[in-house]
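$ ./design --mode recover --in tokens.txt
reading tokens...
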């Protein structure tokens, strides 16, 4: 999968929030690009404009390679490459693609790392 991935920055900025407030959940659910129920509340991935000032603005990088839910190694390779450059990431696997959320101020650096990772893998293939 790595040799074929084509990382692409998506428009906008996002933030991760968590809430148990039913009213806030109802208000933000139509805006959320992802949710996950945890014991502490509903984690929501929403446009940054809907989060408070303490949330870290994140950019979404879509890997643009079909990533089977049974695939092995993509998440590990991407998160390890970013980690080696001190870039935090939150991976979100969906049905068709994996998405990497990185702090907005590190997005350009993350794109350079992911592009280099893809090129190295393609050269070995």
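writing sequence...
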């Amino acid at each position: 999968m790595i040799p074929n991935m084509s990382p692409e920055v998506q428009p906008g900025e996002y933030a991760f929030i968590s809430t148990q407030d039913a009213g806030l959940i109802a208000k933000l659910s139509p805006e959320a690009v992802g949710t996950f129920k945890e014991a502490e509340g509903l984690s929501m991935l929403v446009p940054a404009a809907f989060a408070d000032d303490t949330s870290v603005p994140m950019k979404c990088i879509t890997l643009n390679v079909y990533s089977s839910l049974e695939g092995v190694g993509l998440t590990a390779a991407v998160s390890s490459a970013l980690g080696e450059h001190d870039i935090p990431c939150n991976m979100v696997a969906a049905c068709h693609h994996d998405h990497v959320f990185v702090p907005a101020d590190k997005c350009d650096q993350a794109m350079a790392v992911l592009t280099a990772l893809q090129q190295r893998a393609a050269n070995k293939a």
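exit 0
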